[in-house]
Amino acid sequence: MATCVCDVFPQNSGNYTEISAACWMGEKRVLNICCNTTGNIRKAIMEAAISTLISQFKTYAGKDGSSNTLSKEEFSSLVASQLPNLVKNASDPAEIDQLMNSLDSNNDGELTFCEFWQLIGKLAGKQGGFSQ
Q1: Residue 130: helix, strand or coil by DSSP?
Q2: Other Cβ atoms within 10 Å of 74 Cβ, number
C-alpha cells in the first residue's frame, strides 16, 4: 500500500497567510493545492488541467470564424501542436478529417467544446489504460 506524504508551506501574503500543500506518493506528486486562511482554495492540479484545456480550446477557436467552435483548420492546428504524441498521424490531413468527422455529432463541420471534449476523454482513457 502506498503512503501519501504531505508537505505544508505557510507563506505570508499581504493581509493573510497562504498555505501551499503538496502530497507525494514516492516521487510522484499526486495533489497540489494552495489556499489562504480565509479558506479560498486556488486551483488544484486537476482544476488547472481543465482550465488549460479550456484555454487552449479558446486560443485555437475563433481564429477563422466563431470563437465557440473549432473549424477543421483550427482543429488540425490544435491537434498538430498540442496533441502530436497522442493522436496517431496528427499531421495527416486525411486522419484529421476522419477524426473530426467522428467527433462532429451534428455534422456542421465545426467542433463545439463538448464535441472536442469527447477526444480528450478518449485520449485520456487510452493514455491511462482505461480503454481497449
Answers
A1: coil
A2: 21
Q: Where are the beta strands (DSSP E) in 1-132?
A: 5-13, 16-25, 28-36, 69-70, 111-112
φ/ψ region of 89 (left if φ > 0, alpha if ψ in -120 to 50, else beta) reads: left
- C-alpha cell of residue 15: 493581509
Task: For residue range 64-120, list pLDDT tens digits in order.
Answer: 878 899 999 999 999 999 999 999 888 899 999 999 999 999 999 999 999 999 999
DSSP-based three-state secondary structure for 47: helix
Q: Is the pTM of this model over 0.70?
A: no
Tell me how far apart the alpha carbons of residues 60 and 66 are, in angstroms, rounded to a whole number: 10
DSSP tally for the chain: helices H, then strands E = 4, 5
